[in-house]
């Protein structure tokens, strides 16, 4: 059987390793990271040309099942996958890692978007921004000082007072503690990406007594079955 994984996440790489070589696996990466960590099996990089292009690719390459294992904030591709799977008449599963949940001592501030998160920074001075290089434009007009972490170097527009830290998770709790202390951070801004790879920053923020502005996840297509981890997604695929 041929499984198409819409990937780019840690879970997608694990899933590809679980399926290959028991099934033919093609992982599709968006190409936004210059040097991605490649999964097992076949890999294609780049977009499909919307839902219609994805459906055509699925039919042309005799795909038996599609698994949407993209980032929780990759909203467009998830809806395109749902439409394409319906058009091509192939089963679709969404591998969605659970979101983070605040614990005792956490001071989380909810935001519906990056723009709303930027407006929530009034009164703060030094911001640890972990929303990725594609979202810096939302903070371009802010007067605060920013420590922005991303895998690849961001492009303008971005805040005038910014230090860019190029790094890739997983991150350690000790490392996050050190960053927050050394840069005298007084607020953390993040997306609710979920997962363990980048979660230590939340613990470090709680220990430092600083608030966290958390951007909510975008809506997802209705009616698509989901799995919370790669193991369950692999079982689903192999049972097709």
Features:
six-stranded parallel beta sheet; 29% helix; alpha/beta; 7 helices; single chain; 240 residues
Word description of this protein:
- The protein is 29% helix and 22% strand.
- With 240 residues, it is α/β, with parallel strands linked by helices.
- Strand 1, helix 1 (10-19) and strand 2 form a beta-alpha-beta unit.
- The longest helix has 14 residues, at 75-88.
- It starts with a strand and ends with a helix.
Give a count of the beta strands, DSSP E runs of length 2 or more.
12
How far apart are the termini? 8 Å
How does the helix and strand content classify structurally?
alpha/beta
Helicity range: 25-40%
In the sheet with the most strands, the strands line up as 3-2-1-4-5-12
SSE topology string: EHEEHEHEEHEEEHEHEEH
Overall, the morphology is elongated
Instruction: Compute the CA-based radius of gyration.
Output: 19 Å
**Major sheet: size, sense and barrel closure?**
6 strands, parallel
The helix count comes to 7
Strand content of the residues, in percent? 15-25%
Average pLDDT level: 95
Parts with pLDDT < 50 across at least 5 consecutive residues: none
Outline the secondary-structure elements:
Elements: E1 2-6, H1 10-19, E2 24-29, E3 42-45, H2 50-60, E4 65-68, H3 75-88, E5 92-95, E6 108-111, H4 114-119, E7 126-130, E8 145-150, E9 162-166, H5 173-182, E10 187-191, H6 200-208, E11 212-215, E12 226-227, H7 230-238
Parallel strand pairs: 1-2, 1-4, 2-3, 4-5, 5-12, 6-11, 7-8, 7-10, 8-9, 10-11
Helix pairs in contact: 1-7, 2-3, 5-6
């Amino acid at each position: 059987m041929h499984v198409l994984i819409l990937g780019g996440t840690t879970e997608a790489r694990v899933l590809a390793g679980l399926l290959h070589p028991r099934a033919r696996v093609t992982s599709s990466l968006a190409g936004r990271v210059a040097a991605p960590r490649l999964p097992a099996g076949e890999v294609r990089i780049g977009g499909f040309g919307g839902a219609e292009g994805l459906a055509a690719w699925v039919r042309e390459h005799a795909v038996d099942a599609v698994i949407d294992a993209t980032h929780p904030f990759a909203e467009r591709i998830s809806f395109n996958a749902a439409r394409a799977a319906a058009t091509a008449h192939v089963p679709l599963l969404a591998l969605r890692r659970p979101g983070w949940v605040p614990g005792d001592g956490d001071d989380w501030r909810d935001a519906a978007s990056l723009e709303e998160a930027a407006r929530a920074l009034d009164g703060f001075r030094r911001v640890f921004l972990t929303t990725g290089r594609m979202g810096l434009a939302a903070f371009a007009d802010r007067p605060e000082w920013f420590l922005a972490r991303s895998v690849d170097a961001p492009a303008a527009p971005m805040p005038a007072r910014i230090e860019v830290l190029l790094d890739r998770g997983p991150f350690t709790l000790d490392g996050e503690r050190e960053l927050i202390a050394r840069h005298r951070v007084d607020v953390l801004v993040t997306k609710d990406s979920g997962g363990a790879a980048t979660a230590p920053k939340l613990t470090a923020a709680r220990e430092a007594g600083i608030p966290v502005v958390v951007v909510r996840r975008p809506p997802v297509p209705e009616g698509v079955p989901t799995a919370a981890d790669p193991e369950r997604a692999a079982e689903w695929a192999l049972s097709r």
